[in-house]
Design a protein that fits this description.
The protein is of the alpha/beta class and about 300 residues long. It has twelve helices and ten strands. α1 packs across α3. It holds the Pfam family LysR_substrate.
Length: about 300
């Protein structure tokens, strides 16, 4: 493979940030103030670029400068390049194991109903970390997203270069309020099923795992076949919120609804069964594991073990 490096016809790179500031402010004086340099330094930088390129970059109009077409072209390229460099440096800093900034991407429903109420315990254990929780679900490119770890349900493929640490087995079943359960007389077949577009197969999967067939009378069977009473929501979180508001039954999962069950906002009268999925931490597979990631993994595992005791 030819790895020869071509020589770029670039001007002085030191001059480009000064030019970019002058173009942004349309003023050499304001650019100098923003960069804490002299007016002359900005003027000389622009002059050197113009000499190198052989074209003027600004029209001088009293105290204001206006970009020429060539200046506009160079300004856009310089602005985009400097922004890209800033982003790369920030990512390098954030992904350094010594950085106090620790960014967690977490599935929204799990974050709002389970992780956030418990995160204070992690803060107390690790006050040296500045934790930033970003809510997102599904596959993720950690580097592109600027995240150190992602907490995800194991329902999609994971790249081979990721470290994967499961911390909770998922179990699921219908959940509703105590009042709604009483109104049904304990017959889930009579209730309104709450569906979400982010987990469209939740009810189907739960029904498939029931170990015995249910026997209904004619009235109950007609009610089950009448899908008009079912309600559909955009997101899993909304379906659970609707169940908590007494609008029907949703398929809730552990550990997502753990706190709701403990505090009596929801009940799971028909039990919870394993779904075959788990919740897991995804991180970059480093030669030396990130101690911040190890701390999060240990805390999540211990927290889930305590819930089961």
């Amino acid at each position: 493979m030819n790895k020869s490096h071509s020589k770029h016809l670039l001007p002085s790179l030191n001059a480009l940030p000064l030019f970019e500031a002058a173009a942004f402010y349309e003023s050499f004086s304001k650019a100098a103030q923003s960069l804490h340099v002299t007016h002359g330094a900005v003027s000389r930088a622009v002059a050197s670029l113009e000499a190198h390129l052989g074209v003027p970059l600004f029209h001088r109009r009293n105290r204001r400068v206006v970009l020429t077409p060539a200046g506009e072209l160079l300004y856009k390229a310089t602005r985009d390049s400097l922004a890209g460099l800033d982003e790369a440096v920030e990512k390098i800093h954030r992904h350094s194991v010594d950085s106090p900034f620790f960014t967690i991407s977490c599935e929204p429903t799990l974050a709002m109903r389970w992780l956030m109420p418990k995160l204070g315990d992690f803060y107390r254990l690790h006050p040296e970390l500045n934790v930033d929780v970003r809510m997102a679900g599904g596959p993720i490119d950690l580097l592109a997203a600027g995240c150190d770890v992602a907490i995800r349900r194991s329902d999609f493929g994971i790249p081979n270069d990721y470290r994967v640490t499961p911390f909770a087995e998922e179990r699921a079943g219908p959940v509703c309020t105590q009042a709604y359960f009483d109104a049904l007389g304990g017959h889930w077949q009579l209730g309104a099923r709450l569906h979400s577009r982010t987990r469209p197969a939740a009810w189907k999967d739960w029904l498939a795992q029931q170990s015995q067939e249910m026997v209904f009378d004619g009235e109950q069977e007609a009610s089950i076949l009448d899908r008009q009473q079912d309600r559909h929501f955009d997101h899993f979180f909304y379906a659970l919120q609707a169940a908590q508001s007494g609008l029907g039954m949703a398929i809730g999962s552990l550990p997502v609804v753990q706190k709701d069950l403990e505090e009596g906002f929801l009940i799971a009268p028909w039990g919870m069964v394993p779904t075959g999925h788990c919740y897991q931490v995804l991180s970059l597979d480093r030669m030396t594991p990130d101690p911040r990631v190890l701390a999060l993994e240990s805390w999540l595992i211990e927290t889930c073990l305590e819930q089961e005791r």
